[in-house]
Amino acid sequence: xxxxxxxLALKYVALLISFMMSFGMIACTSNxxxxxxxxxxxxxxxxxxxxxxxxxxxxxxIEEMEGxxxxxxxxxxxxxxxxVRSQTHANIVQSFQFLELEDDGIxxxxxxxxxxxxxxxxxxxxxxxxxxPEGREGVDNQLAxxxxxxxxxxxxxxxxxxxxxxxxxxxxVVLELEGVDDLQNDDEVTxxxxxxxxxxxxxxxxxxxxxQTFDYDYDSPLSTVSGLQLKDGTLIAGPLELNIPITILSLxxxxxVEFARVQLTLNDEGEMSGYLSGAMNVPELSEALLNTDAxxxxxxxxxxxxRNADMVPVDDTCTYISMGMAFEGTRAYIVRDHxxx
Length: 341
Description:
Distance between the termini: 54 Å
Helix content: 10-25%
Strand order of the largest sheet: 3-4-5-6-12
């Protein structure tokens, strides 16, 4: 019986983690898209290409609109009050993967709390920080340690669950660079992270195809950081705070991710890849879980998070657990609507 209970606990921990880890990700099973999004008009939005120029179809649209309105230099309009901002470059996240231990004590991520904790230190409640593959110390990513235990048991199931949610349009995370002139080097860029809405087309590799149109989700929170520098195609942003709706099994809660940071790199095709990290308040999360219809499952899950909390000690007990995920994106075009603003 104990082995069955532990197995069930690990399953619920893994399933919960798969949603909590994805910043801005929203499982919208009760929020079907009501937009008129058409993937075949994706190229009509004027997002910048890898060299800072518009794609061919986007350029054609801009040429048609030039002179039609003085506002054409700021935003691109089509069909009513729907529009696409110029000087933006967006990616939709195609896939997420947990940042796993790359070796003993080595994991990707960020120093979220500014403290270098060693095994046994009070600051990390006994959990030492990691070292990045590049040699940076102080990396906070306790979930990497926990995932080393979970992955052999439920890793394949969790990644399949998450990938299906992305491909079905239930988990659509948009990373948008605003005010960007050059996708390799730009001294003044804003990063927006939000949820997109669409029924995406899936390519032959089982991932969302490039250059599709997604609606901006006005019902979900926006996280934004300005004054960023894009250098040699790489950008680092944070700290961010994100409110993540989690809808999984019988759970329906809002989880807050704090101390969040993201690093992204653009390739020659304007596609983003990178990783993001953050931490969650374990007492707040535990209370939210225990106040759902999944109380029995929550009682099994909560101790896993409590034992692995590694940040912000209060009365000798850490209250936050650190985590991180790698992501791969592809070019996308984001349609906004003045009537909803």
